[in-house]
Amino acid sequence: MKAALIGFSQSGKTTLASAVTGVDPPIGAPAVHRCMVKVPDERLNVLTKMYNPKKVTEATIEYIDVPGFSLSDRSGQEGWKRNLPDIRQAELLVAVARAFENSAVPAYRDRIDPDEDLEELRDELLNADLESITTRLERLEKTLTKPTKMQDQDKKEMAILQRAKTALDESTLLSEILTSDEDRRTVASFGLLSLKPLLVVHNVSDSEASMPDPDPPEGAVGAIRLCASAEQDISQLPPEDRPAFLADLGVEQPARDRLIRKCYESLGLISFLTVGPDEVRAWTIPEGSDAVEAARQIHSDIARGFIRAETVAYDHLMEAGDMKGAKAAGNVRQEGKTYIVQDVDIINFKFNV
Ligand SMILES: Nc1nc2c(ncn2[C@@H]2O[C@H](COP(=O)(O)OP(=O)(O)OP(=O)(O)O)[C@@H](O)[C@H]2O)c(=O)[nH]1
Ligand SMILES: [Mg+2]
Q1: How far apart are the C-alpha atoms of 305 and 282, rounded to whole Å?
Q2: Which terminal residue of the chain, N or C, has fewer Cβ atoms less than 10 Å from its own Cβ?
Q3: Whether 273 contacts 343, CB under 8 Å
Q4: What confidence tens digit (pLDDT) does each residue in 174-185 have?
Q5: What is the band of 77 on the pLDDT scale with cuts at 50, 70, 90?
Q6: How many domains does the chain have?
């Protein structure tokens, strides 16, 4: 999964990326910077002890740290446009808004007002989409003057895009109006920004880190409060020292765990597990996926030749102590193609190609 960290200049995006990955921020002029983080999953540690596999593979999230921009000058506007292709690749947008006081770091538009910043950012997402759609509409209008094989398809697309343009003109996010499968398929290749789920981060001073998460602004799927610089300092400590400093900050879980969980929730993702002497592994799928879709995540051959999914809930395996015991207790189920995979499932796919 890819998530883009976006926001105005100096809101703490790079600091947050460093806090989440534990890697020092890059030195030098701000540039798009990608970092991978393993999704923490205690179940994998336990299963590794049980199976002693050659390899353990965690689920991962790729954070695309995008340099901030200022809309108050030309070069800032150009910088934002230049980085749009990177942002379009992400499945989730994480908007980092400055809510911390720090006299050494100039604030965007001389204000510390995350709500205003987020509103301005939202308008900019809508503007970028309006530009993409207008360009595409102009091209379609030209092609539709001559009869082509694609004409029916083009007319359908035009109707969807006109509906999208009207919504954008009225400041409505595309996620609210392009809801059908056909709508989404038609615009899938455009990387429209206001169609992506938006998660909001209020980057606050350390003294405010323990306050409850803010309400998400309209159209956002979630909001989280954290102090990126304190969390970055803590992430660089030896693991055994971290809990005490987190407690001082007044938070139970590090930003890494909280942000990753929110990213999963925002996209409606879950993970199922596979186990064996070769590999213990977590796989990420959308919630509500059936067994064949889960199998496809591993390999298209497994989906094609699907016979059944031997499934055991993680807790049942723990109760029994091993797979043999879980089978004896009748807790290893044979599930078919339409079984909806659950977050707790450990699956062994039987297939034939
Ligand atoms: N006091 C305080 N300072 C912070 C916090 N987060 C970031 N900073 C400081 O703000 C400055 C900018 O942080 P960055 O993480 O580089 O911000 P950015 O959003 O990546 O900046 P650009 O990429 O240039 O837009 C740095 O000096 C940070 O140390 C915070 O939570 N509290
Ligand atoms: Mg940065």
Answers
A1: 22
A2: C
A3: no
A4: 999 999 999 999
A5: very high
A6: 1
Q: Domain for residue 189, yes or no?
A: no
Which tokens hold the place of 213? 């998460």
Predicted local distance difference test score (pLDDT) of residue 22: 84
Return the percentage of the chain with pLDDT > 90, whole number.
91
pLDDT in tens, 8-52: 999 999 999 999 988 888 888 788 999 999 998 999 999 999 999
pLDDT band at 353 (very low <50, low <70, confident <90, very high): confident
Measured from the alpha carbon of residue 18, the closest ligand is 1
Residue 254, phi then psi, degrees to nearest 5: -65, 160
Report, as an integer, the average pLDDT of 240-264.
94
Encoded tokens for 63: 């954070």
CATH number of the domain enclosing 296: 3.10.20.30
Structure tokens, 235? 């992430």
- b or e along 170-198 (b: 16 or more beta carbons within 10 Å of the residue's beta carbon)? eeebbbebbeeeebeebbeebbbbbbbbb
Which residues are near ligand 1 (CB < 6 Å)? 9-15, 30, 67-68, 100, 102, 105, 203, 205, 227-229
Angle between helix 228-235 and helix 242-249 axes, rounded to 10 deg? 170
CB atoms within 10 A of CB 124: 18
| Sign of the alpha-carbon dihedral angle for 155, 157, 158, 164 | positive
Which domain covers residue 330, as residue numbers? 288-351
CA atoms within 13 A on the CB side of 216: 14
Shortest-distance Cα residue to atom 27 of ligand 1: 105
Residue 204 — very low, low, confident or very high, per pLDDT cuts 50/70/90?
very high
User: The whole model's pTM is what?
Assistant: 0.92
DSSP letter, residue 291: H
Please report which helix (H) or strand (E) contains residue 320, including its range: helix 314-320
Q: Whose CA is nearest to atom 12 of ligand 1?
A: 10
Q: What angle do CA 180, 6, 63 make, to 5 degrees?
A: 85
For residue 126, being part of any structural domain is answered with no
